[in-house]
Design brief:
This protein is mostly helical. The protein is built from 11 helices and no strands. It has 2 domains: 55 residues, no CATH class; 135 residues, Orthogonal Bundle (Tetracycline Repressor, domain 2). The protein is globular.
Length: 202
């Protein structure tokens, strides 16, 4: 396997710039990978390279590694899902956060691509999504922190502890219920997280 480049990949730079720059092919790889993930297909780098009409070395140069590509795909879906739910929910304060996070968790648990990935590559998936260095978990913590800060700014939420710590704990709750089957053998169910979230945010 080609070695991942040091520093941001062309794909990461392209995503950070909002889709502008000199590497549209990196975005082509990203979009194809996201379509494959949403279709609950395994992300095979050789197949991606072949469909894109490039060799594997070029593909790895664009995206860094299969793991880095997976993280970018999953984060883009997570961000889009959070934003969609945020726009739809009418409640305010703690109840708004409980609704958004519970619906987000349900969307993650019921996503066909996520189900396949966890079933086939569960330990690797947990490693990528719960460690700091792949940069999925820090972005999710920051997104939840932003939601907490918005409600606090509107006077609808008054937390007695650091909101960033609360965001971290909420993300750990999301992770715990997402990987319930892998950890305890029980079927994941977003509704089980709802009373825990209310307890945290009351």
């Amino acid at each position: 396997m080609p070695r991942a480049p040091v520093g941001p990949t062309p794909l990461q730079r392209q995503l950070a710039s909002g889709g502008t720059g000199t590497h549209p092919a990196a975005l082509d790889a990203f979009r194809l990978a996201r379509r494959r993930f949403l279709a609950a297909e395994r992300l095979d780098m050789s197949a991606l390279a072949e469909e894109l009409g490039v060799n594997r070395v070029t593909l790895y140069r664009w995206v860094g590694s299969r793991d880095q590509l997976l993280v970018e795909v999953i984060w883009s879906l997570a961000r889009r899902t959070l934003d969609r739910i945020d726009r739809r929910v009418d409640e305010v304060g703690a109840e708004r956060l409980v609704r958004i996070i519970t619906e987000f968790l349900d969307a993650v648990i019921t996503n066909g691509g996520m189900q396949r990935w966890l079933a086939e590559e569960g330990e690797a998936a947990m490693r990528l999504l719960t460690r700091r260095d792949p940069n999925f978990q820090p972005r999710l913590i920051e997104a939840i922190h932003e939601l907490l800060a918005q409600e606090a700014a509107h006077g609808a939420l008054d937390l007695p502890v650091d909101p960033h710590e609360v965001a971290y704990v909420i993300v750990r709750v999301i992770e715990s219920y997402t990987y319930l089957d892998l950890v305890t053998g029980e079927r994941p169910d977003a509704r089980r997280a709802e009373p825990i979230l209310r307890l945290l945010l009351r």
